[in-house]
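Intended use. Records like the one below are meant for learning the mapping from a protein sequence to its folded structure. Do not use them to infer anything beyond what is encoded.
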Amino acid sequence: MIKLARTATTFAPPVMEARRWLDGITFTDDLPLLNVSQAAPVDPPPRALREFLAETALNVPDAHLYGPVLGLPELREEVATQWSKAYDGSIGAHQVAITSGCNQAFAAAITAICNEADEVILPTPWYFNHKMWLDMLGVQTIALATGPDLLPDPEAARALITDRTRAISLVTPNNPGGVEYPPTLVDAFYELARDHGIKLILDETYRDFDARSAAPHCLFSDPNWGDTLIQLYSFSKAYRLTGHRVGAMIASEPLLAEAEKFLDTVAICPNQLGQHAALWGMRNLGEWVAGERLEILDRRAAIAENFAPMAEAGWKLMGLGAYFAYLEHPFDMSSDALAQAMVRDIHVLALPGTMFNPEGAAEGAKQMRIAFANVARPDIEQLFARMSAYRP
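Structure written out for the chain above:
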């Protein structure tokens, strides 16, 4: 019997699949497309950063060559310094790796700790690219169901741990749910992972847009955090560097030595120009990022303020935060069919909950993600006006 190729073990990229739903549809000035499908900035970086990139491209020859596999030493040092201050912990540059985006950081972490048929626990609804990589690596995804508040239960996770479990992976602020995990919850999962000798992978891609001003957790204050914690981060959202592919992984030095084998094989080194841009952004764009955060928080507030007509139409707001609102729809149809009908009928492109849940899960059929980061207040009002009046 011929086994499936690795890529055949998982599903097609959801965002690309959703874009194909636009084929053959004509949008008009009266009813333009409202695209709330993807959580990525659509605007370029601020002009000062673009000017720095241009100067670097012209005047820094090394920016066009291979660099260290684990990233520019100066950027690693800057992350270690700023993270140590932000989390009131102790992080060294030797515990920071720069990666080609946060997805690669996750792939590197999983590859460094897992063998085929090992298990990783993911709360549902999950971030689909995490599930895709586990599928392609032959690692079993163990779904941890969440309740109406979308917060995972550490005791429910405890019941899922076996001798094959290698990690629990959390995303906070959450993608797709938007919810911000309380520090006590993050700490409980950390203690659970530590007690069982497994890793806690904490994806904090959206940390710059957390509504809380204090640190979202205190895990780095534990002098032995490296035994348990793997933190992931993306520079894409804060500095609009999506096309430059720059992320980070903070972990123990021995684990990074294993991840380095993977990183050297698939990319050799992260994008050099992108790394210089991320470093300049960290040193010079603090106030600008703070303003971006306030804009996202205002759009989050607009979601809450304008949701009443949606609630009257039977929709439920399950989660809200960072870039996302996560909804439950009121219709007697699966969310994947509903999402495609919405594109056709009301020119709204959103991702269905079926893309964030196990195949056939009843929860996924009733849920939908709204990525609102690129939708201004007036468009949020228009979005909900269309959706609340819609009857498929």
